[in-house]
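User: Predict the full complex structure for these chains.
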Amino acid sequence: MAVTQIAVMGFGVVGSGTVELFYQNKDVIEKRCGRELDIKYILDLRDFPGSPFQDKFTKNFDDILNDPEIKVVAEVMGGKTFAYDYTKRLLSKGVSVVTSNKELVATHGAELLKIAKANNCNYLFEASVGGGIPIIRPLHQCLAANRFSRIAGILNGTTNYILTKMIYDQRSFDQALAQAQQLGYAEKDPSADVDGHDATRKLCILGSLAFGKHIYPEYVHCSGIREITLDDVEYAESAGYAIKLIGLIENTETGIVATVCPRLVSVNNPLSSVNDVYNAIMVTGDAVGDCLFYGRGAGKFPTASAVVGDIIDAAKHEGRDIISLNWEESEGRDFIRPYKTAEVSIYARIRTENQDADSLKSEITNLFGYVDFIPRKQRSQHELAFITPTMVESEIDERLKKLTEDCKLMKKIRLL
Amino acid sequence: MAVTQIAVMGFGVVGSGTVELFYQNKDVIEKRCGRELDIKYILDLRDFPGSPFQDKFTKNFDDILNDPEIKVVAEVMGGKTFAYDYTKRLLSKGVSVVTSNKELVATHGAELLKIAKANNCNYLFEASVGGGIPIIRPLHQCLAANRFSRIAGILNGTTNYILTKMIYDQRSFDQALAQAQQLGYAEKDPSADVDGHDATRKLCILGSLAFGKHIYPEYVHCSGIREITLDDVEYAESAGYAIKLIGLIENTETGIVATVCPRLVSVNNPLSSVNDVYNAIMVTGDAVGDCLFYGRGAGKFPTASAVVGDIIDAAKHEGRDIISLNWEESEGRDFIRPYKTAEVSIYARIRTENQDADSLKSEITNLFGYVDFIPRKQRSQHELAFITPTMVESEIDERLKKLTEDCKLMKKIRLL
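Assistant: Here is the predicted structure of the two-chain assembly.
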């Protein structure tokens, strides 16, 4: 049988991991694929003198596009400009593309899936969410008999590392971020991680697959973890919660709501004990109930594991599209309901200027009918934290506004 | 496009769940499958007067076998005799079979996969392990780029429920078993569950997929949870462990070792907090690291979720075998190494007749070089529990035998 030839576009962390893993495990990979495979090209504009893959490097995309031997291409360049153009041109020629590029999938997934389908090839992106954790294929194949009601996930390892350090080592956000940067878990400009944009892209991909219509990042409410303080972490702990950055998409009675924000997660929820750089995704379906997927959400070889897994699948299914068919383009806003219309329970921390905060307890209780006041050791007389009952979020906001003038709302965090 | 016709063999818990789920979610199922599907036959020897599926029942297997419209059959009868015969005859005709029958897959998987491959159809069994938890497909597709070093799982919900009641509610084994029987979690004859046979079959399926050769149940060391006492549970807890029934298959330097037995699981291991009837499987691969899959391991609709997921996949891939190709028959014993040659750490509880057990501490320490003695409140003077260092198990046994005559080994439990 002819050898199936592969190209890898981008030789950064994931790209080099993909090539190294491929040759390291070539024997088991070919056995499981049922055919011989080889990497013919590696596309990168940089030079890699001394690399053992010297003979494979090219700086010219056309070498790949115009080589009829190439059946599968791994796009691990990242970014949107070139990756988008190259992916479209490859799929249009019937060449399957597998990718770890969450930005591209979250932005143009529906369009690229359509092109793949029209050309009997596959666009696969297991590596785009949760690194090596199998989640895309389980969601659209194994769980395909379910109507999904909810996906809740810890989708970003950097922020989870920072929050873990805050919870267990009492580091401030700034200290924990600095530590994450030292260890290479966070970038110099950490915004994509700590402000929630990375998690938002991943949530869009999961939500689009689960609900069958493209969910665009701009319609997802997104807030990061910069404002979380050790005070909040400690209050949450005394009430039996851990603070986690949660990507949440829910099919409520009146529509779909999608948010990425810090949330108080009960210690009884398995997501609360997912620590360090680990990711975990909880999927709820009407037949299966709750299913959790847990593992390393990033890193060279975990991500390469997913990329090579997709390469194997694409090679096996050459000439036939296998991806699920029901992720359609959507008109955005119509499909996603404003998040403040969803029911939620809120953790609030307030501060008073003059009076003892405890003197507000009956006022607050009256506002909400019932609240859980959180006890905390060495609490300032001027501070009070509580958890509201579950109600529509905009209604909670209205009631919080009615607090006396002397009382300032310092923090508001949603519960999961 | 013609409707793909399906038959369901067996209308027990899983069979009725499969049919009900199929009609309940037919719209999303067909959308995700990309084609129309229908159930034409339900095979069962019993009558189901008043069932809404009246027109589909048949007592004659030949109706299914000889109907050229039938492309996919769900075998959810259980047992080995008829299920084995029917499955072979269907696959031989090129009809794909999906199943929840772990006994059949664990016993005849290699042979049935070979027949499917020879006839361009599929034999799928996502439902045979972990109920609705996606684990089979993730293992052989998503993680196909990995060399696996280890799979450790809580594979049986009944025993996990019993152990959870023992740990959290201080019930004895007998009390917890009675409660599980009352709730319908355990059968009247609970042997298949509590003695570890059910978990063993599931471990064989996972191990065969991961290591590419059939692992037969008779070569797996299997012991159940009947001997676990509240004393052991309490000692384990004070040392930072929970006792769980663990199916474990490891690729050690000198070969593969497979066991199903109670083990002490560190509270730092996510498996330790998997409670009640939930299952969880931790897969370790060289690229991906540790991945955990968690959910309901049994039950009507969770299991039906996996069966219908496989039906969708089989229908999508009609006429092409998609299952991984590398699960071959094996000669059994050659492939699996005797478990006592593996390195392990052991929890031991001893009892003395006459002397104070503490007086044996230096003798025990000398035997092993170093041991962790477990403190426990209200411990009898005549009892002592400790954890050995990691060494070859047969060597640990030898050393334990050397304990003075006055000292009786009451319990020995492996650590994970």
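Residues 102-118 of chain A form the longest helix (17 residues).
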